[in-house]
Specification:
This is PilZ domain-containing protein. By secondary structure, the chain is mostly beta strands.
Length: 86
């Protein structure tokens, strides 16, 4: 089951931006609109209450991006995010 959650994302030295991680799973997520995303740069993610996460962009289509975590989320961490998302 995927979940949607608001967080902050950043690529390179760009400022942190609010984004909605859609269809979040232990392995990755989608962001519906991330303008000027560059597939060759890692993405940093700040979810409140968690350590900084890293992901790589697997695809970009019409401003949307599909991402894979560098290391899959531990199942207990994913379950915590699902509970916190409501």
């Amino acid at each position: 089951m995927g979940v949607d959650i608001r967080c902050e994302v950043r690529q390179g030295t760009r400022p942190w931006r609010i984004a909605l991680l859609e269809d979040l799973s232990p392995g990755g997520f989608r962001i519906g609109c991330l303008l000027q995303a560059r597939q060759e740069l890692p993405l940093r993610i700040r979810i409140p209450g968690l350590q900084l996460l890293s992901a790589r962009i697997c695809w970009i289509r019409n401003g949307a991006v599909g991402c894979e975590f560098d290391a899959p989320l531990h199942i207990a961490v994913f379950e915590h995010i699902v509970r916190a998302a409501g």
